[in-house]
Amino acid sequence: MTLNSPICCSMVVASTLTASECVCQLIISALEESGFGKEDVFAIHLALQEALINAMRHGNDMDPDKEVKIDYCVDAEKFEIWVSDEGKGFDPCAVPDPRRSENLYKPNGRGLLLMCSYMDVVEHNKRGNQVHMTRYKQSSVVSEKKG
Amino acid sequence: MAEIRPRVSVDYIEGAAVVRFVDEKILEEMDILALQNTIMSVIDQEDGVNLILDFGNVRFLSSAVLGLLIRVSKRVYEKDGQLKLCSINPKIYEVFKITRLTKTFDIYTDLESAIGD
Questions:
Q1: Which residue, A79, A86, A93, is CA-closest to A133?
Q2: ipTM
Q3: pLDDT of B60-102, one tens digit each?
Q4: Domain ranges of chain A
Q5: Can you give the residue range of the structural domain that contains B80?
């Protein structure tokens, strides 16, 4: 069954892996109800997982007393989400490109690269503690950007 | 009580140490740490290990797993060993392509071709 009316939701969760998994499952269900296919669900799940872990680990130091705010909206055409943490933020332009050989052994950068590859829009606020992502249904964003 | 179960199986086939991931999803930090400890202990058993990581069951992973694979490869090469990956689901392979790890790892279609090479 495909729902025509948008599903919008706001929530605040603790910085725990259990909360991250719950948020992912909730959003996957909303995507499936809105008729998103397996490719879209895989892409959004991957980007969402990376965004939540970035917020919880790098933003909130996995402190369960620190919260992550999530606002998302799913409609027949697109999925859109904002993920905010309590951290001081970061400069996404300063993150090393993990595709370069000199950065192979650096631990960071792959999550952000995957988010940018699987979503149509990835943008951070000025402080760098909130990411906004959009993916349009049945988008070919990965095949266009790869290589 | 927390569930305790093996995350990988280890078999020795024709001189190769074959590590199979059991779970469909590999996400959580504790899982990845447990995987790392198991795989590193296989590598450390002897120099020159021929290590094959079988992804046949895996349908979803996070970038943290890619970091684990990089650390595993570093240890294998320090010990003059070989590392091969096999049976990677097409969606997961796309993740490897995006991060250009297809150029870093020797990836085989299935376990038989990984063992035979």
A1: A79
A2: 0.89
A3: 999 999 999 999 999 999 999 999 999 999 999 999 999 999 9
A4: 13-145
A5: 8-116
Return the residue in A110, A115, A117, A142 with the most chain B beta carbons within 10 A, the one to mutate for interface testing. Answer: A110
Flag whether residue A49 sits within 8 Å of chain B, measured between CB atoms: yes
- Nearest Cα residue to A2 out of A28, A31, A26, A23: A31
Using CA atoms, how far residue B25 sits from A75, B30, B58, in Å, is 27, 13, 6
- Cβ neighbours of residue B64 under 8 Å, at least 6 residues apart? A53, B27, B29, B32
Q: Judge whether B68 lies within some domain.
A: yes
- Give domain A13-145's CATH superfamily: Histidine kinase-like ATPase, C-terminal domain (3.30.565.10)
Contacts of B97 in chain A (CB under 8 A): 146
User: Residues of B with CB below 8 A from A105's CB?
Assistant: 70, 74
Output the six-digit token pair for B42.
């296989």
